[in-house]
């Protein structure tokens, strides 16, 4: 199968799997990540096909959409096999998806340039104006409050989300969003992250300012 044809099939697969997930994790998230991964791949001279294909598939395995991460990964593995992807490429793509998630040990370094590119693209979509929108969408879907001044930002609340505790949308900035900038792998990704990070700080400043005005 031609590369372009494979990419189009992956796109359709992602669309059918993620469809209208309302938690800020929908198909358009994957669409943005794939677009950004392509751009980053060009900047970083990474393998564009691997980067784009991995980006399209990266959230199909998400544990929120599957019984567990294992079944999610198997779904992607089966798809790669069925579409005649080279065995080395299959392994490469699966390794990237597995290493990618922040919770699945985001501290585990990416081994390959393509992994670095796709991880940066995914993290960049959690930042800036779009990242803020996703945070409020996800938060609402989980039944969390926008903000609760009695929930202060404490170190032990870090990753409350991943321990399945209730947090707030604003607290998520401190649990995750503001920590992402320094984790960027590529120079170009770092550059984009700077601006998005700055905008989030400005947003928080305005948020607290308005809160006090009431
Ligand atoms: P991805 O796997 O695409 O990186 P996640 O599944 O971790 O993203 O989260 C989807 C979106 O929801 C992201 O923008 C993330 O920042 C946001 N999010 C994740 N957990 C929370 C939470 N507890 N509260 C608010 N937003 C969250
Ligand atoms: Ni993602």
Tell me the radius of gyration. Answer: 18 Å
Rounded mean pLDDT score: 89
| SSE succession | HHHHHHHHH
- Helix fraction, binned, reads 55-70%
- Helix and strand content put the structural class at mainly alpha
Domains, number: 2
Instruction: Assign the CATH topology of the largest domain.
Output: Cyclin A, domain 1
Number of strands: 0
Oligomer: single chain
Low-pLDDT regions: none
Shape: globular
Major sheet characteristics: none
Per CATH, the superfamily of the largest domain is HD-domain/PDEase-like
Count every helix, treating DSSP H or I runs of 4 or more residues as helices. Answer: 9
Strand residue content: under 5%
How would you characterize this protein structure?
- The protein has helices at 3-18, 27-44, 48-57, 69-82, 87-100, 113-124, 128-141, 169-175, 187-213.
- The protein is mostly helical and 214 residues long.
- It folds into two domains: 1-108, Cyclin A, domain 1 (Orthogonal Bundle); 126-214, Up-down Bundle (Methane Monooxygenase Hydroxylase, Chain G, domain 1).
- It contains nine helices and no strands.
- The longest helix has 27 residues, at 187-213.
- The radius of gyration is 18 Å and the shape is globular.
- The mean pLDDT is 89.
- α2 (27-44) runs antiparallel to α3 (48-57), α3 packs across α5 (87-100) and α5 crosses α6.
- Adenosine-5'-diphosphate (ADP) binds at residues 24-25, 29, 59, 62, 101, 122, 126, 131, 134-135, 138-139, 144, 161, 167, 169, 172, 176.
- Adenosine-5'-diphosphate binds at residues 24-25, 29, 59, 62, 101, 122, 126, 131, 134-135, 138-139, 144, 161, 167, 169, 172, 176.
- This is Phosphohydrolase.
- Residues 26-127 form the HD domain.
- Pfam families: HD.
